[in-house]
Amino acid sequence: MARTRLYRNGVLEAENFPAADISDHLGDPGATVWLDMCAPTEEDLATIAEELSLHRLAVEDAVHEHQRPKLDRYDTHAFLTAYAVRLDPATGVLGKAEVAAFLTERALVTVRKDEDFDIDDVVRRWDSAAELGKSGVGFLVHGLLDHVVDSHFDAVQALDEEIEALEDLVFAEDVDHKDMQRRSLHLRKSLVTLRRVVLPMREVVNALMRRDFHIVDDVLMPYYQDVYDHVLRATEWTESLRDLVTTIRETQLNLQGNRLNTIMKKVTSWAAIIAVPTAITGFYGQNIPYPGFDQTWGFWVSTAVIVILSAALYVVFRRRDWL
């Protein structure tokens, strides 16, 4: 179902009225209208597109999924695409919820691709800052962007906590390396996804703040600057976390390599010790006479040589930390 709101001179006047009545309010210079639609078709948007003179390319982008975050300007309106995100702590997978918006002089039309986008939170933000309602469409767009950017910030903060937990496991004694590798891969993929939706938001918010766009007035400018600051912080945080995940992965591989080298040193050292009695007993096992052949003292001499040489090798390897 479509959701609607009517603000007149900055005051909420009506909610959930029929979308067909929007045209009755657009002629009032003091009116600001919001229309929300979930998973509409091009036919569903046809009426409102004709009413607001929406560009055909913008309508197509609003219907089709997987658009990049952007802000396109047309003669009669602007078209905005953004993504709210949420991290699943159990799997480390980042979920996305796409939203498109048409920005006209006195109307905001939001198009959600599915129910995952929490439009109720956007409405609560509008209600909590009702004193800004006189700023018209800019006020509505700010609430929408504030929800989107806050989701980015919450996601990067959750990813930071997950990566810190992963970092603690690197030097743990008993750890499931397969699970750790799988989780680090999921976190890295989530960071790549987050970067794709966060990085373009700098241009989107910066473009909206331009004076020639006539969306942000002097009252709203500090609020948009705050959103822009959050976008920058989320972007920088995402970049640093990507480097940190890579470092953790490299550290894990280096530690595994070091453990393997330690094991190989120990195995080689024991093999060298075992080679001593093997060589001596092999020498005495020849079918020709040798010093001490067929004599009791020959057995004791060979046994003493085995014990002395093996003990000497053990001491040498121990001092070099090979055992």
Explain what you see.
- Helices cover 57% and strands 16% of the residues.
- It is an alpha+beta fold.
- It starts with a strand and ends with a helix.
- It has two domains: 3-256, Beta Polymerase, domain 2 (2-Layer Sandwich), CATH 3.30.460; 264-319.
- Strands 2-1-3-7-6-5-4 form a seven-stranded mixed β-sheet, sandwiched between helices.
- A hairpin with a 3-residue loop joins strand 6 and strand 7 (107-112).
- The longest helix is centred in the C-terminal third of the chain and has 64 residues, at 221-284.
- It has helices at 22-26, 42-52, 56-63, 119-128, 137-169, 177-198, 201-208, 221-284, 296-319, and strands at residues 3-8, 11-15, 31-38, 70-73, 78-88, 93-103, 107-112.
- Keywords: Cell membrane, Membrane, Transmembrane, Transmembrane helix, Transport.
- GO terms for molecular function: cobalt ion binding; cobalt ion transmembrane transporter activity; magnesium ion binding; magnesium ion transmembrane transporter activity.
- InterPro entries: CorA_cytoplasmic_dom, CorA_TM1_TM2, MgTranspt_CorA/ZnTranspt_ZntB.
- Belongs to the CorA metal ion transporter (MIT) (TC 1.A.35) family.
